DNA sequence: GCGCATAGTCGAAACGCTTCGATAGTATAT
DNA sequence: ATATACTATCGAAGCGTTTCGACTATGCGC
């Protein structure tokens, strides 16, 4: 593998001149530059990333911190990973994956202090997130996909849960539904302050109230059985329920079964809308599910770009971007069933 | 950030002694070692990964080469990524993600020649894979998840399609099925020599023949509509079909619909088994799908460990590991419908 | 014709580590 | 005693870059 020194010799210039030519750090005459690039070409020279990183104190590597979540990672998380990797590469960075099984913040700290990465993108944020606190105290550059309690001075992107809920509820209102259930993530997630679990529920209740609608909520572990049980609980609490919004893909089949068990048809007798879901999951079931799809790709790319811009010092000001999920109407949502509701009322 | 020099001074030894103490490269007296580790502790010293890599010519970073596949990555691929990242970390390595949108092998080559990574794990292998050819010619260390035309001298892991097909077919035979369809990935994938598409089909036909059963195969684009159409084509070709094996999760809902359209019930009238699938996908549908689940986690870990062992020179010999999918019987497979078949025969 | 920027280039000093060769001291074998 | 072989340590030479300070032309204003 040829080194910069080889290129310099071959082009008849000083080592430093080659460096300047490559990085454009100082003016180089067109003629010399050409000679250097020819030499590079001829020798098949590639700058050594490690040496460059060591000398410049900028590795051009960033890390994606992803937790081995209890919830189990899904397609949305996969998109975060892929989009972050792509965004990094497009900007000339490498992306390393750090799974934060890492209990002690100490272990995480050691990772950062190895000097391997210039900054990190953190996902699956909780309200009180010790990773974020650590990053703050050691003043390490980072960006978040999600939000925590205090987001001041932090570059971050997140789903716009307010807007998403408004769109979804408007969709159901437009179909005549007035009694709507919300099936959240597990209670454990909510109590741990997991962002989506907290904000989606809050926004759901706010929006329902603002529109004079009846909203009922329940937590639900991610499984068929729990989905089944939970939707029955929702219906027990509010028998007038004609639709449910679910933020827990793995509970969906349970809901479908519970509705089928009652002899109801979807969407004639009952509507389902999934939020923060994906087309891929929505099309696995019969009927296909109307979903508000997570803008996962955008979020991953944006967060990564924010971090890189911060690292390049291109801008000091902090950005925040909230992106709503995109509603895609499929087979699971339809007109509110006038009759069934009346039947229940008798 | 303290350096090794700082530690050395603080412990009253030479710089090199600290290095030997850390790496155990040369014997150090217990007393000195203790003094050095105390100093490290006290100063909060962390070795600099870049400097270490530059000096030792071993970065302890490996890359996972994953293609932005047309098929679209799914849960199985996500598990590869996660398990590779975990295995890397457990072995003291970092894992960087390289998406191989990378058309020209040249671009890939540049990545390797940056000296950033010690080796790569390649996934989504095709029979003729230019990435593999490149790696071979530049003699770069790598391991594969999958196989190509010539796997000699290459560390690799793969699904044991032969064993998997035998298990699945035995399961269906045990239920009395004799006419079984196989719904493959898209023709395009097959023709491009995409490993699973090629080997699963070959093994299916072999095993069917060996058991004196009637097998029919079809390619299928990954979508509901195509699943629907393709299963109808299969049934047109062999009206005696009572079961189908599908290696294309996204086609499953289409199959379910096609069967329902005929007024058939699953599994009473028709059985479905998914291969190289995941529990998560299998439980999204009604009925839940009997699946041969991809050993994704094992494959990702194993391939990564093989690569690392190779890098550490612990063993010269090449390993190959084939792991079969694990059959999990769910609601979609049942006794062969004697009556329906007779009805068709009349 | 003089002072002064500025373009273009060079040499050398980092960057923080690994590793080689040398040296001194201590056992072990002869 | 003497050669032999470790054990424990040190100093210095890299690893392949970036970057700083210096130096030489060259052009320009006046």
Characterization of the model:
The structure is a homodimer of 346-residue chains. With 346 residues, the first copy, chain A, is an alpha/beta fold. Chain A folds into 3 domains: 4-47, Orthogonal Bundle (434 Repressor (Amino-terminal Domain)), CATH 1.10.260.40; 61-159 and 296-323, 3-Layer(aba) Sandwich (Rossmann fold); 161-294 and 328-345, Rossmann fold (3-Layer(aba) Sandwich). Helices cover 46% and strands 17% of the residues of chain A. Chain A has 15 helices and 12 strands. In chain A, helix 1 (4-11) packs across helix 2 and helix 5 (75-90) packs parallel to helix 14 (296-311). Residues 341-346 of chain A have low confidence and may be disordered. At the A-B interface, helix 4, helix 5, strand 2 and helix 12 of A face helix 4, helix 5, strand 2 and helix 12 of B. Chain A binds a DNA duplex (30 and 30 nucleotides) through helix 2 and helix 4.
TL;DR?
The structure is a homodimer of 346-residue chains. By secondary structure, chain A is an alpha/beta fold.
Question: Average pLDDT value of chain A?
Answer: 92
Counted beta strands of chain A:
12
Oligomer: homodimer
* Full CATH superfamily name of the largest domain in chain A: Response regulator
> What is the CATH C level class of the largest domain in chain A, in words?
Alpha Beta
Strand residue percentage of chain A: 15-25%
Q: Distance N terminus to C terminus of chain A?
A: 84 Å
Contiguous uncertain segments of 5+ residues of chain A: 341-346
Instruction: Describe the largest sheet of chain A.
Output: 6 strands, parallel
If you consult CATH, what is the topology of the largest domain in chain A?
Answer: Rossmann fold
Separate helix tally of chain A = 15
Structural class of chain A: alpha/beta
Number of domains of chain A: 3
Strand order of the largest sheet of chain A: 2-1-3-4-5-11
Helix share bin of chain A? 40-55%
Series of H and E elements of chain A? HHHHEHEHEHEEHEHHEHEHEHEHEEH
Largest interface: A-B, 52 and 52 residues
